[in-house]
Every structure is written in C-alpha cells, then in structure tokens.
Amino acid sequence: MKVRIFVTLKQGVLDPQGKAIHHALESLDFSGVNDVRAGKLIELDLDPSVGREEIEKMCDKLLANTVIENYDIEMPESALETVS
Amino acid sequence: MQSAVIVFPGSNCDRDMAVALETVSGKKPHMVWHGDSELPAGLDVIAVPGGFSYGDYLRSGAMASRSNIIKPVIEAATRGVKILGVCNGFQILTETGLLPGALMRNSNIHFVCKDAALDVVNSNTIFTSGYDEKTPVSIPVAHHDGNFFADDEVLDRLEGQNQVVFRYRDNINGSSRNIAGIVNEAGNVLGMMPHPERAIDEKHGGTDGLALFESLLS
Predict the structure, then answer these.
(1) Active site residue B113
(2) Domains recognised in chain B with CATH numbers
(3) Would an 8 Å CB–CB cutoff place A11 in contact with chain B?
(4) What letter does residue B104 receive in the DSSP assignment?
(5) B58 in contact with A at a CB cutoff of 8 Å?
(6) Helices and strands (DSSP H and E) totals, chain B
(7) d(CA B191, CA B14)
(8) Is B201 exposed, middle or buried (0-12, 13-18, 19+ CB in 10 A)?
(9) ipTM reported for the complex, 2 dp
(10) Which domains does chain A have, with CATH numbers?
(11) Is B195 a catalytic residue?
C-alpha cells in the first residue's frame, strides 16, 4: 500500500525557501500569490499490515523533526476501511 | 586526555578536528567510523565534526543522528564525557536530542562562508574557560543550515540557565537571539556552528579557536 507523508514547517517557523519561491513567482508576473510554504512529500510503499501507529512512529523518529515540522499521513481508503 | 572524532560518510572537517585535538593535547585522537557500535574505552572527549553527512538528505544531520555509533555517544554524554559538535556536528547533536532546538536554512538562503565575529557569552564552561567574555573572537563559519531555531520557552530557558555560549555580533544566518553555540543543561555537550578547529594556526588566518581546545583538553 502506498502511504504519503506530507512534512511541513510549523506555523510561525520562517520558511526561507517558500519566501524565495514566492519572490520568483512575483518576478514571473504572477499576481495574487499571498504566501508560499514549501514542504516535503515522502511516499512509502508499505505492507498492508503496517498500521497507522507504526507510521506515526516512523514520522516521530525520523521522517519529521517535530521541533520545527508537522506531518500529515495520507493512507489509501482501503486501509482506512480495514482499520474501521 | 583521550579523544575521538566520529567520521560519517560526507564528513569533511574530521581531519581538521583531529589536527586541532592533536596539536593541543599532543595525542592522536581515535577516528571512529559511524557504523561502529562501540567507542574506544576511556574517552574524555568526543568530537562530532562538520561536513555534509549523508549529503544532508532529509534534514542536515538527520541520517547521521540515527547511525550505530550515536547510541554509545549518547550513553557517553550521559556519563559526563565531553562532547563537541561543530557545524554539521551541532546539527547532528540537535537531531539526537542531546541539545535542544533545530538548525534551519539560513534566513537569506545563501551559503555563508566567512570569518564571523562572536561574543563569548559564557566563559564559565569547560569549553570556554580560556576566553574572556569582554573580548570578541573571530572564528570561520561555512554553512547553509545554521539558522538556530527554538520556541520562546526553550530560548528563555537556555538564556536563564546560561546555556547560550556564543552569539554572533552580526546575525549572519537568522538565528534566534543571535545564538551561535549552546551547551546542554549538564554543561558537557557543546554545539556550535562556527569552526574553532579552523582557527588554531596563524598561517590559516587566526588562532581564536585555540582557547576552546585548550579549555576542553586541560
């Protein structure tokens, strides 16, 4: 099963990369861009037996640095049905 | 005085660190590979050097902080062995949790490579007893991810407990409260972005890093 982890900087943490992208969009004459935040997408191909709790451990122990980052886990719908 | 330098794939200041330790202590340090699961017995000092371990994949220091050797390094830190983390070594120590906070991309996105003027904010540590707080020092920096971040509560605690050791005189990377180096609560673990091991020989442009090694190795 394919699980996607979105790692983003916490609110209030300065994102210089996002700021640079924002600036570049403006210099390409795109208007109406209020803010840009850059993050990471990590795709995991997991055995269906791996539960959400285990994935959260992976995020806490390695994939995200929770001092500065938040993470969201996107599980396939079929996996959610199995859990519920 | 027995010392060791931990070597990761992508470390590039490990040899400079070894030269600095040997110059000041007169003894060659052990060079310890990250994949080892044990440290040599009887170490007094462990240096985690600068570089780009694992190509800075995922986050600077993230992969290195999960390597085999880190478990015994954490155990040694708990026993009171002195740990010095410089640049990537500082990033690795924050990723292990031995030091609080995180080192993020420089706020102006530029890689900064220059001599940085620093204030020694606390000369009452085992790392800085050879410095005078009234005299600023000049130590080279070379980093992309040196922007020290911690929330206000952690920053207040660091300042309240005199754990801030070095501050930039000009904030070159966006670090919270100009912080360039901190120690842990017990005072035996120091992380700093500037490179004292690159400032131990007049031929290289200055010797302001010497006092750190002299304090540490005395």
Answers:
(1) no
(2) 3-217 (3.40.50.880)
(3) no
(4) E
(5) yes
(6) 5, 11
(7) 15
(8) middle
(9) 0.85
(10) 2-83 (3.30.1280.10)
(11) yes
